[in-house]
Amino acid sequence: MEGLGRRVLIAAFDGWNDAGEAASAALSLLRAEGSYEQIYSVDPELYFDYQYTRPQAGFDEDGRRTLTWPETVLLRPTGPADGTQIWLLLGVEPARAWKAFASEIIDIALTEDITGFVGLGSMMSDVPHTRPISIFAGSDSESLRTGFDLERSTYEGPVGILSVLSQMADAAGIPSASLWASVPHYVAGHTPSPKATLALLDRLEKLTGAVIPRADLALESVAWEASIDAAAADDEEMTEYIHQLERTRDTWDSPEASGDAIAQEFEQYLRRRGDGPGKPGPGDPRR
User: Fold this and answer.
1) Residue percentage of the chain with pLDDT more than 90
2) CB 153 within 8 A of CB 138
3) Same-domain status, 83 and 166
């Protein structure tokens, strides 16, 4: 597809960029449902802090104790080359030497003749689980923003490795975009969020033109929402909080709502949370 081209690298990382495991689960599903070969793996000694991301002990199929070290791998598709092909970059966000890490990845991308880069992330937000998951789709490329209805982020502040990779990809001549799912903060740290994973994959298919598998995510999303409903039913305070989030979201989404009405409702919501009107809340794409 014009814009990102026919050889697109999709990236997601465990950690800071991955509320509710929504982004990493998206790439795990693509990996499981597709046909890939590993073409690159970073040296964990160079990029990971084992006190922060510890190796995991386990047993192999013969019962011998093993250690699995944190990793980041790049996978090449091995299936038919018809249409848009998807490469995968997945693993653990590095703890150090981000410039060197990103340079290695971009060098491999150039060797593979990658034509586009998309970073997938998910963030904890003040949103209700009962409404469609919001996806912030952005790019610094004017042509991509025009052609694919993307936004330009105005965020300033700390970033994750996805932002570093996106900037270095753009600098190397590989157009990049980012997709961020807003995950309800009251569940993001406790359970995977298949509804957010599904929303990311839906938007990724529109952006890349690739055929994206969904597996059983639709059913898992319904079950996830029902489990939260059941938990909230026993908590009057939580139920009222969710209704408050629903009212705010419905105001933003209503076709008759004016920009002034939405801004007023948002500022009232921030005041209830104790934030100033100029400070972006967790659900604001600027974060």
Assistant:
1) 72
2) yes
3) yes
Query: pLDDT by residue (tens digit) across 119-174?
Result: 999 999 999 999 999 999 999 988 899 888 899 888 888 899 999 999 999 999 99
The verdict on 235 and 203 lying in the same domain is no
Give pLDDT, residue 263: 54
Q: State which residues form the domain around 53.
A: 7-217
Q: Which amino acid is at 188?
A: A
Q: How many domains does the chain have?
A: 2
Distance separating alpha carbons of residues 25 and 200, to the nearest angstrom: 10
How far apart are alpha carbons 169 and 157 in whole angstroms? 20
Q: What is the pTM assigned to this prediction?
A: 0.86
Distance of CA 133 to the CA centre of its chain: 12
Same domain (yes/no): 264, 170: no
Whether residue 56 is found in the same domain as residue 19: yes
238-279 confidence digits (pLDDT tens): 999 999 999 988 888 776 655 555 555 555 555 554 544 333
What's the per-residue H, E or C state across the chain?
Answer: CCCCCCEEEEEEEECCCEHHHHHHHHHHHHHHHCCEEEEEECCHHHHCCCCCCCCEEEECCCCCEEEECCCEEEEEECCCCCCCEEEEEEEECCCCCHHHHHHHHHHHHHHCCCCEEEEEEEEEECCCCCCCCCEEEECCCHHHHHHHCCECCCCCCCCCHHHHHHHHHHHCCCCEEEEEEEEEHHHHCCCCCHHHHHHHHHHHHHHHCCCCCCCCHHHHHHHHHHHHHHHHHCCHHHHHHHHHHHHHHHHHHCCCCCHHHHHHHHHHHHHHHCCCCCCCCCCCCCC
